[in-house]
Design goal:
Layout lengths: L1 H40 L4 H6 L10 H9 L5 H32 L5 H12 L7 H11 L16 H14 L2 H9 L4 H12 L1 H16 L3 H6 L8 H8 L8 H36 L1
Helix pairs in contact: 1-13, 3-13, 4-7, 4-10, 4-12, 5-7, 7-10, 10-13, 12-13
């Protein structure tokens, strides 16, 4: 009887694993399917897309779509580089200074700490569109309306990232390390850079993905500030492809979208292992 019970448990476990694998494979296919359709449409002509919107077989119009994309009044490669510069710069500033601010909110005791944190939470509730008029007027008076720096420097103040980092520090940061390092004579910036940042890798990776995607896909702010074609970003260029008054080239639009999505996928693949490590660490602590 015991042997039969053990065999039943083993067979039940095998069936459960098979079901889990099947569900995971189906979810993976559903996740990849939209990207594959986008890549396939980047190789098709406008007529093919209009006649059959969905197909899994690539066509032979990729080179023609690339010629259409590069034949516009702007250069997609320049837009790609502008988007890379803005996204990498803003992500780096946002992550570092937000983590530094969260570290100050958690590690140090000062009189207005709680009031400052409440102010940050309150700023999170204000939509960016409301402050755009004042932000544009400031940029105009400084003569920086066509400068990529004005799309990078504001990332230093990122309330949402500060909030997330602060919550992560409260839950996962061992304060004994700071006290031990201070006794050994380490400076505050050395403690932060060499001890806090490595511990914060999972949170930094998560927020880096969010910050990079948000900056890369940002259309509203660059569209307001940038009027010079040499400073256009990829989202602006893709949006202008849809504004052709003669004919909308859907194949080149899908090609532009594919080029826009590729850095996001690379960014996720680079940082995903840190997120997995953070999840595993959290499960072990739990």
């Amino acid at each position: 009887m015991k042997v039969d019970t053990i065999d039943q448990k083993k067979s039940g476990g095998v069936v459960l694993k098979v079901v889990i694998y099947i569900v995971c494979i189906l979810l993976a296919i559903l996740s990849i399917f939209p990207f594959w359709i986008m890549i396939v449409n980047a190789t098709r002509s406008t007529n093919e897309i209009q006649q059959h919107a969905v197909t899994l077989i690539p066509s032979s119009y990729l080179q023609n779509n690339f010629k259409v994309l590069t034949g516009k009044s702007f250069n997609p490669l320049v837009g790609f580089m502008n988007s890379i510069i803005i996204s990498v710069g803003s992500t780096t500033l946002s992550i570092y200074f937000s983590t530094l601010t969260a570290y100050a909110l958690v590690v140090y005791d000062w009189k207005l700490k709680n009031a400052f944190f409440k102010m940050i939470v309150g700023i999170m509730m204000i939509p960016a569109q409301i402050t755009m008029i004042g932000f544009y007027q400031m940029c105009y008076k400084l003569g920086l309306t066509n400068n990529l720096l004005m799309l990078i420097l504001p990332a230093i103040a990122s309330p949402m990232t500060v909030f997330f980092m602060r919550q992560y520090l409260v839950a996962a940061f061992p304060f004994e390390i700071v006290q031990s390092a201070r006794i050994d004579g380490a400076g505050e910036f050395r403690i932060f850079n060499q001890m806090c940042l490595p511990i914060m890798k999972p949170a930094i990776a998560t927020q880096a993905i969010f910050a990079f995607v948000s900056s890369w896909n940002n259309l509203f702010t660059p569209l307001v500030l940038l009027t010079d074609k040499k400073n256009y970003t990829m989202p602006i260029m893709v949006s202008l492809l849809r504004g052709d008054i003669y004919k909308t080239e859907y194949g080149s639009i899908y090609l532009g979208l594919t080029l826009t999505v590729l850095p996001l996928i690379v960014m996720y693949l680079i940082l995903s292992r840190y997120i997995i490590e953070g999840v595993a660490m959290g499960s072990v602590k739990g």
